[in-house]
Prior knowledge:
The protein has 517 residues and is α/β, with parallel strands linked by helices. The protein folds into three domains: 58-143 and 209-444, Alpha-Beta Barrel (TIM Barrel), CATH 3.20.20; 151-193, no CATH class; 446-516, Immunoglobulin-like, CATH 2.60.40. Helices cover 31% and strands 17% of the residues. It has 15 helices and 21 strands. The strands form five sheets. Strands 12-11-10-9-5-2-1-13 form an eight-stranded parallel β-sheet. A five-stranded antiparallel β-sheet has the order 14-15-16-21-18. A three-stranded antiparallel β-sheet has the order 6-8-7, with no helix packed on it. Helix 9 (300-307) runs antiparallel to helix 10 and helix 12 runs parallel beside helix 14. The longest helix has 23 residues, at 2-24. Residues 1-28 have low confidence and may be disordered.
Amino acid sequence: MKKRLLYKRLLYIICIVCAAVLAAVPLGACAEPSGAAELDLLAENIVDDNYDNYYEIFVYSFCDSDGDGYGDLDGVTSKLDYIRDMGYTGIWLMPICDSPSYHGYDVRDYYKVNSKYGTLEDFGELTQAAHERGIKVITDLVVNHTASSNQWFVNAVNSRNGVPGADAKYRDWYNFSATQLTGYHKNGNVYYEGRFDGGMPDLNLDNEDVRAEIDNIIKFWLEQGADGFRLDGCLYYYTGERQKSADFCGWIKDTAVKYNPEAYIVGEMWDGMSTGSLTEFYKCGADSFFCFPSHGADGYVNKSINAKSAATYLSSVQRVYEIAGGYIPAPFLDNHDVGRIAGVMGRNADKIKFAYGLLSMYNGNTFTYYGDEIGMIGSASDPDKRVGMLWDNAKTNLTRTPPGAKTPTYVFDGVKEQLADENSILNYYKLCNNARNAFPAIMRGVPETVTYSDPNVAIVKKTYNDSTVTIAINLSDAAKTVTGIAGELAQSICVRGSISFDGQSLEMPGRSIAILT
């Protein structure tokens, strides 16, 4: 009788605990994936600076916590453990402000969160939870233009068109013309600049009131917990005037550090390295600008893989480092504007992995677009590049497809399944991030190319403070014996197989990376 009573009490306690746990999880909340494979991960050695592994998130398509079909900020919060476990120490949230569009790059109100995503309180809880895990949060800062429904623009055009009651304060907040010019659109009797789209009128960034408002916006979001900003379209702040656009990036950095001395600024300066304009932008004082030559079918990474060329890869390593001029490079494989890397690599898992391996050995902050770690595809319209994150093969918590996108195709398994497979794309990404977090020199070290006789084998040393790592890469599909390298094998990153080292010779399978200390 006593045993039965004890059993009943135990069962009651279990039921109460389970009920409490279930009550704490919102309907439709994104469950944390389980059953992760055991990987040979190294102890991290995180440096407190602005070098990080960043993860780009389109909130709309990431994780739906309340069952309405839209991803939201609470959904992102529920996945922070996953993000940090993957080795990411920073997240970039694509636009989260109030906007009439699904993508959010036409801001209607800079001080409100998109209602589909949640509230300012949700954002505060997200940043607090992220900081507790050692994850920084940057958001898109879209100030090249606003939405045409933004009240600033409504007042501006109404004032110029003589509408009674219009607030003349905003009359010069945008770029207007009495005649039709390239990139201008008509509203009533006036023409306004909208280089990206007629629904996105360009702000007059020379207007002191506009700058004061942007200053306030920067202060507002930093006070909400943001750690910095990604600058959208910063090459186009001033049409055809690169230097003025670069100077404005510097102004944003100077403004941000007034409110957070550690604020991180990364700009979308869509241009190559050969023109010198990227160097010009770095001189403005912002921390980073995206290295577009590292991405896509014509990028450094893909060219190195296709040519199996150590020379091609090593020259890009040096170039990415040098172009930043002492600031922080920001190489990436893809983002929301370009075809996903899985498609560029022909949906070949080995090549997808190796592409990220090569990217991870660059200096600076790498940026991973959500879903790339599981080989998601998308390359047609912009909406096709922003489809729902596949958390498991059962499509649990899958968000609705963005307007205009085709029904998404998932070539590879979801997160849950790939976590359990030690040879998955996801776990390869995890190893790469772990290496970057374990050896600060990979991100920060001065690169020194080591000459080697085999054109398929790239060797580079990186020195940071008093530590040096040697990185050996076999770009060939075939196994290689690499000799003449001193040190201890600290980490092996292999598409297939494993690396062995007897103190004299490295036995490296095809497409493999060895890190020695």
